[in-house]
Design a protein that fits this description.
Blueprint (H helix, E strand, L loop, with lengths): L3 E7 L6 H11 L3 E8 L5 H6 L5 E5 L4 H12 L4 E6 L3 E2 L3 H11 L3 E11 L19 H6 L9 E3 H7 L10 H12 L1 E13 L9 H17 L5 H4 L3 H28 L3 H14 L1 H10 L2 H8 L5 H17 L4
Parallel strand pairs: 1-2, 1-4, 2-3, 6-8
Antiparallel strand pairs: 4-7, 5-8, 6-7
Length: 328
């Protein structure tokens, strides 16, 4: 039996896949690599069949990342499991280090590590999260998902108690799984990078709208699902309110960054989409932000040559937003 199963889901990215597979092989001494081809319509199947010593599974109808990962989970055989995106890279011996940490902490359900973000042009940022948190992290995870998905190694035995990923909440499925696990078990971590985490270019808005949508859906998920978890429901009213306050504050900070980043690239539509989401979740934060902004501020943020039409467009957009903010 292999020591660890690495589940790689992929869809129409055959050029990236071999590097992810190679990295998984160097990350552990005895690794089972399961590639789930999520209904690719290119030469992904041919690429996978040319690579030896992998378990290749193909589905004909797109399942989404969570659904494809569940298929890999069912097919896996090792006692330890890890997910790997097809554009990410595991660092050498990283899986072995995390498994050893779990073996030294038999009560812990999973071990996570840091991820090094890498942009599309190859530039690398500071490892995330800044400092790892261990033990009982349930309330901290409710506040925000600080665990990079590909950095986690978890015990197979946990799945039988917690269940599979929820494929009805794309973009939130890993956070939901970590919270459900952390409600019942302790968590350990290695305070070193274990994965290279590929990011989209900051100058591109390709994933931006999706990010804002995920933030809005995360707030709904918090209210509808996390608030119903036994540990949350049984907590004091003060603790429940504190958790929601901390969550909404983190969301507000992230949305404010989305607004600034969009303004830097003259993506006024995305800036307003982020602002309207912030309005629905944290009106007071948006009110402070909009009142602070003026043409000069926008010019400084964008750090580029700005014509008067652009500034007028931005001011008009935010003037409409200000009118939407409830008076206090």
């Amino acid at each position: 039996m292999p020591r660890v199963s690495v589940i790689i889901t992929t869809h129409n990215r055959p050029a990236l896949l071999p590097a992810a597979i190679r990295s998984a092989r160097t990350a552990a001494r005895d690794v089972e690599i399961i590639v789930v081809d999520d209904a690719s319509c290119d030469d992904t199947a041919a690429v996978c069949k040319s690579i030896s010593d992998i378990k290749y599974l193909r589905v004909d109808r797109n399942q989404g990342v969570a659904g494809a990962r569940n298929i890999g989970l069912v097919a896996s055989t090792a006692n330890y499991i890890s997910f790997l995106d097809d554009d990410d890279v595991r660092l050498p011996d990283s899986l072995d280090r995390q498994i050893e940490t779990l073996e030294q902490n038999p009560d812990a359900a999973f071990a996570y590590g840091q991820a090094i973000p890498e942009s599309s042009n190859g530039e690398r940022g500071r490892a995330q999260p800044d400092g790892v948190r261990t033990g009982d992290i349930f309330w901290q995870l409710l506040t925000h998902n600080f665990i990079p998905c590909g950095s986690v190694v978890f015990r197979r035995s946990v799945v039988s108690k917690i269940g599979l990923l929820d494929d009805a909440i794309p973009g939130l499925d890993d956070w939901d799984l970590w919270v459900r696990i952390a409600e019942l078990f302790t968590v350990v971590a290695v305070d070193t990078p274990v994965i290279i985490w590929r990011q989209s270019s900051p100058a591109s808005t390709q994933g931006s709208s999706n990010t804002v949508d995920i933030i809005a859906r995360s707030a709904r998920h918090f209210r509808r699902v996390f608030a119903q978890l036994p540990r949350f429901a049984d907590a004091t009213r003060i603790d429940r309110r504190r958790a929601w306050r901390d969550f909404s504050t983190n969301v507000a900070e992230h949305l404010a960054w989305q607004i600034f980043n969009a303004l830097r690239h003259a993506a006024f539509g995305h800036a307003c989409q982020s602002a309207r989401t912030l309005l629905s979740l944290h009106p007071a934060a948006l009110m402070r932000l909009v009142r602070w902004m003026d043409a000069r501020t926008i010019g400084i943020l964008m750090k580029s040559s700005i014509d008067r039409d652009n500034i007028a467009q931005a001011k008009a957009q935010f003037k409409r937003l200000r009118a939407d903010i409830p008076r206090q």
